[in-house]
Amino acid sequence: MGTSDPRIRSVRLAQLDTRYPRTVGRNARLGSHGSGPDSHVAVLVTEDGRTGWGLFEGPPGDVARVEGRLLSELIDAGTGVLDDADRWLDIALHDLLGVVLDAPVHALLGGRGSVDVPVYDGAIYFDDLDPQDAPRGIEVLLEECRADAGLGHRDFKLKIGRGNRWLPRDEGDVRDIEVTRAVRDAFPDARILVDANDGYDLDGFVTYLEAVADVGLFWVEEPFLDDADDLAALRAWLDAKSPETRIAEGETSPDVGALLPVAAAGSIDVLLMDVLSYGLTAWRRLMPDLAAAGVHGSPHAWGRPLKTRYAAHLAAGLGNVEIVEGVPGDVAGVDPRLLRPVDGVLHLDGSPGFGVPLPDEAHLRKIVR
Ligand SMILES: [Mg+2]
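Above: the input record for the complex with magnesium ion. Below: its predicted structure, written as tokens.
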């Protein structure tokens, strides 16, 4: 046992290979998502030899601010990272704090949710449109759902909005409907979520919803560019036709201050700010207000598999999360069982921190930018 308030000896930055099970294609706004991004990680080592680590995204902050400091000067167990300048280490600092206190992050966060966290498959993109010269059609999406079911997934989020950029509007809208219905027919018990990445307008989206009204969508995500009146109109339409269908918003560059009143008024049911770029500390501050307003959270986790595990700890810790975004894939040196759901559920045990041992040295590569 070391001290409960160790000093940080070193901050090391490295890169880990990440591989999706297959190339992930286009969505309503962006081209191919590739076969797996590099994952940048920060490794914190204390003077008494303990280690915490985790992903960071974007440019690293100032390492010199952290080396030589006491852990208690950097993170508070009750609130999270103390100084905004150190927020890029949000995950690694929470992991280290868990290691030092011998507690899982979900317990540090309050243990308000279940440690059996439902996870949906977030990797069903527009692969029916590829390759461009010989599109594979809807069957490939059903194959992908079946493959991901083999990896433990039971619920699926379908990208829609093909008519925004990649197909003529009418043709794309028809394909979205066909895909949604085909997945429902093949997976009668699945929760089906759809994500348009703002690729519709209100009228077009309601037309889509009318055509899939009997599918029973679990949630609709980013149907169109944020607009309070349009969201209220969509909520009213759903209340009449499909009251259980949730509206999820707030992933793309969210102005959280502007979205909160819209959510509190009942027009957004789930807020989606990213588990890394918005961050764990910000979610810790926000979630009680969301819960009081009757709004759920579900941190965006695409496109790194470890983000799903971080989001699951957030869900189990802060509560008020119904389901978390799953990113199928492998991370070099990480036991795949720590990243994959079983029967649609990621189980978190009592291992300290995020419960993911630091990958072996051979997997930690120099960061190339
Ligand atoms: Mg999305």
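Notes for the reader.
The mean pLDDT is 97.
Residues 169-186 form the longest helix (18 residues).
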